[in-house]
Amino acid sequence: xxxxxxxxxxxxxxxxxxxxxxxxxxxxxxxxxxxxxxxxxxxxxxxxxxxxxxxxxxxxxxxxxxxxxxxxxxxxxxxxxxxxxxxxxxxxxxxxxxxxxxxxxxxxxxxxxxxxxxxxxxxxxxxxxxxxxxxxxxxxxxxxxxxxxxxxxxxxxxxxxxxxxxxxxxxxxxx
Amino acid sequence: xxxxxxxxxxxxxxxxxxxxxxxxxxxxxxxxxxxxxxxxxxxxxxxxxxxxxxxxxxxxxxxxxxxxxxxxxxxxxxxxxxxxxxxxxxxxxxxxxxxxxxxxxxxxxxxxxxxxxxxxxxxxxxxxxxxxxxxxxxxxxxxxxxxxxxxxxxxxxxxxxxxxxxxxxxxxx
Lengths: 175, 173
Prior knowledge:
heterodimer, A: 34% strand, elongated, B: 5-stranded mixed β-sheet, 4 helices
């Protein structure tokens, strides 16, 4: 009876996973003419923006802008001296999914591990390095929906950013 | 007869054991001196980007180590000022030390494998950390490694490594 109840809870949670916030954010490409703001996760690097903060990443008026709620960070495109694009397989569903997964560890016969299998998602990792007015080196790293980082790089380069990491990208693409 | 025999045995034992005991105390004091090295002093530190040499490590890991190091060292408060690489203001600080980190080995694991097996799929990064004075004299050199063994994404290794480097700095400064 207890196992039946636990299994039922797991099934309900699995059914609910696709509706979790981070999942719905991942599909950020719009179908209208104007480019839709790209939903990203800030991993580290921007001043006054906390790690793992979700927000929108746009390129406007010659600057890359991250907006996460009330906090906004801007980096002039001309200050960017390198852009790198990578990929990473990570957990989908954001914080909610993390809590659910931790709770599912108590499920019998290690059945909670099924979450690890189901809640996988591939993301693009966009890394930019830039220098502030004092010459100090900064880096900002974002997780983007898969396939979006290259577009963002193109937009940044068009706005005046330097694509310093191109050679490394070619090297990494080779097997 | 019997007490005399017991006395002999005791004497032999005492002769055998005493050098061992002395050696022990000697070793302990030696180890003690290794555990507590002389404290270094500096009011400011400049953190340089991660050097990789010919080791293949994705850019996001390199830059994440750099950013997390700055974040950690600032948070710990070991130094009054923490400068980023290239910061012009660092030129005016007399007792500035420079932190350089060189990657020796990098192994990217898999978060999924870690969570399913709990024994494989770990991500590790081994580095050599060097702190040098303004004149280039090396004040501190240490090999450290960061790991992600169970939970969290691969980039978590950068957090672990930064924590270890910041702890080392806290112990020596």
